[in-house]
Input
Amino acid sequence: MRREITGFSNPTVKLLRSLRDKKHRKRERRFLAEGLRLLTDARESGRTPEMLVMASGREEHPLLTSLIETVERAGGEVVETTPDILSKITGKDNPQAVAGVFAEFDTALSTIDRSAAPIWLVAQALRDPGNLGTMLRTGDAVGAGGLILIDECADPFSVEAVRASMGAVFTQSIAQATWSEFLPWLRGPDGRSEGQLVAASLRDAVPYRGAPYQAPCFLLVGNESRGLPEEYEAACDLRVTMPMKGRADSLNAAIAGAVLAYEVLASL
Amino acid sequence: MRREITGFSNPTVKLLRSLRDKKHRKRERRFLAEGLRLLTDARESGRTPEMLVMASGREEHPLLTSLIETVERAGGEVVETTPDILSKITGKDNPQAVAGVFAEFDTALSTIDRSAAPIWLVAQALRDPGNLGTMLRTGDAVGAGGLILIDECADPFSVEAVRASMGAVFTQSIAQATWSEFLPWLRGPDGRSEGQLVAASLRDAVPYRGAPYQAPCFLLVGNESRGLPEEYEAACDLRVTMPMKGRADSLNAAIAGAVLAYEVLASL
Output
């Protein structure tokens, strides 16, 4: 279905603008992804937006044509609007912008099939949406299955996280859980499920290079300023440490996860 | 010297607020760093702020006392102000905040002593100040000498970069140059200076693990969306490639630099 919107006060415009805000995103269970490349990644990963928004008379592009066809075939809506309204929605002054509205995915732990990949990233209380999106992007690069978010993390469906993920938000599995849900899930009903929990740590740790990693390997990184709680580290199967040659005693969380993930990738 | 400021229109308040803006920062050749920990890192690295700003009646803290002594001994100014004015300066609603004003460092290539460290990070047209600060932080962790910024990069003295560097802006050397200045400097007057230029690349590259790295090793990463210009890659001594197992063909720039830097650290 095609529709043209020319008024700022149109309810669809209000809805789209509201999706930049976490509270509204959670209520609507929808999120926004922007850019033809990102939307094409989504389409190729089998994720079709419910609604596509662009400026009327926007330049044609073969990828856009495919996208419009996919959305219309799936019963979604294609909305054309003015460049002014579009820039209010996207927050950018780009009349070539294309935005898509997606239904949030199910992020229950039960959606994770641990046997589907040798590496899984796990972030605890990660607060920066850019770090979160970067971890998704890194997960895609190392062939991880997805990202499991423990305790109160940034929203993986925020515009910043979606953008930083460079499309990996559509290809990586994403789950959200508390620690007390995650650990029993990881260990399984009989406490013997496969899955090695590894933390970057300074306590009782072995050098990260050449450590005995095993698939499926769950790489746990902690909060940007506080790191991991001590009892979380204690529950890990393996604690590894990275050289710190300078004054600081920690790396950026997404950096630590990536250096570790590439080491695991090389050793499995 | 101690001073108390109670008016929003005070010229010092205006100056401090203006330092959040690149144009003013460049004109004043000053920058702002916030937080007691960051300022203490600066002090311990021999960088003393010209001015220290805090709320009148702020809680005492031994690190703050040391900082105040250092600033006063160096002939700097200690400014006390109201919590309201302080939050206008720092952009945060934290009456415990402490901010310091520093003179920008000399970022000429000639300040770099390549023999001082085995690893140097080099970023080309890096646009994101968070990525830039994260690279400084990673450089500190791997024992790099510093970060060389090629062509038009984000400002290393922006509040975001300083914050993301977690103090490494004070410990890592920082240089800014164009490519046509950098390459002759690297090769030296007779074209035979020590220094291996390494790029993460997809063209004519060898696997990054086990590649023949040599100190001093200059690790070059490119712009977030365009990567490195082809001629820059061609000028490198070594091109290395990292596994990309997913849909995407690149990593976040700071991530690529970190994975590479840790590999070089392990192999040198």
Q: What stands out?
A: Chain B has a mean pLDDT of 94. The CA atoms of residues 119 and 192 of chain B lie 18 Å apart.
